[in-house]
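Worked example 4.2. Below are the chains of a multi-component assembly; read each line carefully before continuing.
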Amino acid sequence: MTLFLRTWLCLVAGFIFLPIFVSMLFSFNEARFPTLPLTGFTTGWYEAIFSDPDFWRSAKNSLIVSTTTAVIATFLGFCTAYTDYRYSFRGKSLFLAIILLPPTIPLIIIALAMLAWFSRVGMSGQVVSIIAAHTVLTAPFAMAIIRLRLSQIDESLEAAAWNLGASEWRAMREVILPFCKPAILSSLFLTAAVSFDEFTVSWFVSGLNKTLPVHVLEIVQGTIDPQVNAIGTLVFGVSITLVVISQALIFFRLQKAST
Amino acid sequence: MRRLNLYALTFRLPIIIWQTLFFIGPLIFVVAMSFFVVRNFQMVETFEFDSWKRMLSRDFVWDAYVYTVLMAGSAAILASLIAFPAAYCLAFQTSARTRQIAILLLIIPFFTSYLVRTFSWYTILAEAGVLNGAVGLVGLGPYTLLNTYVGTLIGYLTLVMPLVLILQTVTMANIDDRLIQAARNLGCSPARTIWTVILPAGKTGFVIAALFAFILSFGDFVAPFYLGGSNPPTLPILIIDTTKAGQQWPRAAVVAVIMMVTLFVIAFSAIMYAYRKRASR
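Applying the procedure described above to all two chains together yields the following structure tokens:
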């Protein structure tokens, strides 16, 4: 029984990680069409993408979009988390719903809605449109991380600061913000990573200012091109670094908090 | 009630304004757009039922609808069934530390591009691909998997499996151990323990996991497009085709509204079911 379960677990893990592994493996394989047996080692696909101006343009857009998104989404997430932590008021659940709902709506619908809306208000095909869309998509993650951190704070800390004569603003600056710093940093990295990978909404609203995933989408639509594996492996490297930093920040803080 | 001051508003207003501009606004607009009409390649803002009549009277729309619901439903059920033994193993037969590491590992797929993973499956499943190359070495195949519903399902499972596995593992790890011990002590077989203790105790988690699997598959265009060959098309592919190929945005909006209503009904029923307390006896 135990043996069966262990084997099953390995098979499921295999299913999940096989495409990631295969993509990395074949980004170094010579043959244009990936199949077994392997044909020989090459770094040609990486050289191909590095010499492609389209790659650099889209990578630059992705960088701008994901960093700006991270800052705005984290700000929105922080405001919501703090409001939820500190206040109770009529319509609060509606207030929380408008920021937490986006992940439950299929991206394709959000993409169409954004495309139509942005063309209506004259904002279509710009990098800022992608950023606006991505902040809505990623703010819930920021909110979740920061709210989790706020639930660990001793509520009397802020009140103590007020009693000692600090204004609400000063208490925010000297008590709440320092306490939330690891969660805020972690949220910056996580939202950047999510934004960096998003392609459905970007594809619809980006126009000519495509991001890296949209560039990949366009290559995939054309032919079988192992460049995709190489880009995928690079993007994987970037995303995973961001996530590891984000996780490490939460992890070490939790350890510190519990000791 | 406390009076609203500048400080409190600073944290509330930006959210309300931002989300209204970039979330509520677009969503309401897409509903309104389904009543617009296209004349001379220009979208005219009116209130007419042209697009609705046209889309609802077409067989291909209904075929796509049924196919999408069935495929997303199959993906949700398959993912739940396949993930269950693995989650069971992680929840009950490994240490807390191993489980933590496993969950961290399972987060990795969320940050590898789903597009790249799909492309990878494409090269694995192709007629001359990795899988057929491998089984060809022992004289089997080749099998046709691409451009069939099998390809689509594999894509959906790639998308949802990590999430379902994580949710199920967390659900089962949080079930009170004493319940399971009690069942064992009273002579329950493992199968009966699962059926009478674990499934009811973790109902909420299992239903939510399946619901997420359904929502994600229902809205995904990558798997049915690249692995299923749009054959037949799903609702998201209809949206893309009508938006990108023509100027028929109102018709795409009709499909989007149909999808939203469907999801709302299914999510609402699933959540009601998940949180319903069992009748007291």
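Take a moment to check your reading of the output against the notes. DSSP finds 13 helices and two strands in chain B. The first helix of chain B runs from residue 6 to 33.
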